Amino acid sequence: MRRGKASSMRRGKASSMRRGKASSMRRGKASSMYSDYETCYTGQALTDKDLLKVAETLGQEWEQAALHLELKTNDLDDIKAKHRSVAIQKCKMLVLWKRRRQPGEATAQDLLRGLDDLDLAVETRQLLKELEMIGSKLVYMLSDHNIIDLLFYLNVLNDEEKKTIEGQMTSEDRARCLIDTVMEKGEGASSLMVDYLTKEHPELCSTLGLTPTPAWSKLGKIRSKFINMLPGHVVIDLLCNLWEDGVLNNEEKKIVEGKMTKEDKTRCLIDTVMRKGERASSPMVDYLMGRHPDVCSTLGLTPNSARIGELLF
């Protein structure tokens, strides 16, 4: 009895650890997709990448800048003792300034205000103003009601979550609440949000380094579910459509049709499409989203950025 109970406890503990690890991995993937969205969490906070760019524009006045930013001479001595490179010293100084600020108080505007009395290079002031503008656009972009409506329409957000986000008093709070809510839901929701943003705001997303998720990657992530859960009539419908659109040729269509079971047909179809890359995968995802949205919702398949906007009208 004791051995059986111990074995059961070990299995339960292992299962719990696997669930915890899987949950952590999902959060990690979603978080990594938004590494450049640090702006949203802390009220347009400068990222370490931003600070590196600013540090590169600073000249010999960087030590004066540190004192204007309320760092101590001891802080500078510690930085110099740890790093010989002046370029790294300048960057570490700015990172230390940011670390000591309260959330929402390490923005480009805050940095400009702290250095207002210093004779900064024109290049430094211009860069900080550009970063401030990017941060403002990002907050505006994420507080856009269109994206909230889309995520609600696609069941990423429920009624309560939508009301909570829309009930925030400022655009910064709406943006922060939205991104936190989406990230909690994992990679699928995060991917959909990125896809929408890259379609509607390509220039800003390019600046932030955000790129849409390729259709073939989406199919790969749901491949097992696709094979086991896609209804037979949908498989035939999809096969005929892809053939009519020239995505599949006659031989490929016959090979799929020649498979004995529904699962084998589905497996052959998705593998054939994925081997063709984005030019075949994208039409397949678009067709499924247009004709069988309920099935896509069950599978966890999200629309491509090319047609996300169509879902709002």
Regarding quaternary structure, how should these chains be classified?
A: single chain
Structural class: mainly alpha
Biggest sheet descriptor: none
The CATH H-level homologous superfamily of the largest domain: Death Domain, Fas
Topology pattern, helix = H, strand = E: HHHHHHHHHHHHHHHHHHHHH
Query: How many β strands by DSSP?
Result: 0
Our estimate of the beta-strand percent is under 5%
CATH topology of the largest domain: Death Domain, Fas
Number of domains: 3
- Residue stretches low in confidence (pLDDT < 50, at least 5 long) are 1-11, 13-43, 305-313
Helix fraction by DSSP (H/I, runs of at least 4): over 70%
Describe this structure in words.
By secondary structure, this protein is an all-alpha fold. It folds into three domains: 48-131, Death Domain, Fas; 143-208, Orthogonal Bundle (Death Domain, Fas); 215-312, Death Domain, Fas (Orthogonal Bundle), CATH 1.10.533.10. The chain is built from 21 helices and no strands. Helix 15 (223-229) runs antiparallel to helix 18. The longest helix has 32 residues, at 2-33. The N and C termini lie far apart (63 Å). Mean pLDDT is 75; it is low at 1-11, 13-43 and 305-313.
In short:
The protein is mostly helical and 313 residues long.
